[in-house]
């Protein structure tokens, strides 16, 4: 099984204390200006997706929709998580770069 670099980076950010998870923590860190990237599970409710999409637009924080709740939670060593905030610019850039690389590969096929 191929390792997922995005999930590995999320796990490293968690171990480094640079990741906040859960709706309440993700929201408070984003509003406090500490979030460099917000990740929302693709299987989160439409209300949750809209809430974070609007909030990230207002606070000018990049957002991506990735994986499912179980996968995100597992990457963090927790139960399912619908949302998380990356609190380190380096980890956020690494995740965005990896996601950008995947889009470019998919577009070339």
State the helical fraction.
55-70%
Q: Helical stretch count?
A: 5
Low-confidence stretches: none
Q: Given the helix and strand composition, which structural class is it?
A: alpha+beta
- The neighbouring-strand order within the major sheet is 1-4-2-3
* Oligomeric status: single chain
Major β-sheet annotation = 4 strands, mixed
Mean pLDDT: 91
| Shape label | globular
Distance between the termini: 22 Å
How do the SSEs run, as a string of H and E?
Answer: HEHEHEHEH
Q: Strand tally, please?
A: 4
**What fraction of the residues are assigned to beta strands by DSSP?**
5-15%
What is the CA-atom radius of gyration, in angstroms?
13 Å
Explain what this protein looks like in three dimensions.
- By secondary structure, this protein is of the alpha+beta class.
- Helix content is 57%, strand content 13%.
- It contains 5 helices and 4 strands; from the N terminus they run αβαβαβαβα.
- A 4-stranded mixed β-sheet has the order 1-4-2-3, sandwiched between helices.
- β2 (37-40), α3 and β3 (63-65) form a beta-alpha-beta unit.
- The mean pLDDT is 91.
